Amino acid sequence: MEDPIGTEKIVHGQRWGEFHNGYFSDPVIVRPLIDAALRVLTKSPVDVVVDLGGGTGFLLSQLASNGIGATTKLVNVDCSDAQLALKDSAGIVRVHASIGEFRRREVVPGDQRLFLLMRSVLHYLGEDGLLPLLRHLRGQVAEGEFFVHQSASFKNKEDAACLNALYRHMRSRKWYPSVHHLKNCLLKSGWRVADAMEAPSLVLTSEDLGLRYALNTSDIVRIREAMAGEFGGEGPVFRLTPSGFQADLHYRIFTCVAMSS
Length: 261
Known about the structure:
- The chain is of the alpha/beta class.
- The chain is built from 9 helices and 8 strands.
């Protein structure tokens, strides 16, 4: 990916833990994803866990606190220096790279077993980049190995279209699929979806989005008016506030198994 972070660097580092009302650093909010990973790891122990786009290492630190890591190598792959500098736990190996640059041979010696973990990353690829990235990841694992990820996706195309319109108005190339579309892309890429469950939604405010995407007051007004005209002021995933707007980013946790190629 070419500069997938962009203006978002402003909220990386120490600030990240409190951003979006602490969503990405809350042990309670992340618990469903950790439990999904633990269900796999307790039944099928591995040698290496790689968190793709792992930021500060928060997910891996949560796994470590649940007994994963004593005999398992924990690897955090991220392209943000500021995020990697704030690793949440000792014993986590940091790799500065984009997920598209991830190569199994660089972190998994010999025939050791690998487990892939990810949260809130796939939308950075955009609509055209989703399938190639999923195929790339399938190429880095052996048949029967697991990929557990929490990814933004919506029950229907209309809600996905609403959030995609919002991000276009914010001049972002991020793109959100429907659950059905994402499952199809996973299948086409060689991943069998063994389970898919809802995860806590993230409430996006125009104040937070303005900071994250370098939007000024006139940008917020422009986006507010455009979205109200297209989707109304009180929809299922977008609503107006007195001076801005809010949107709901829906997540699912997908437990995927690499199929035979």
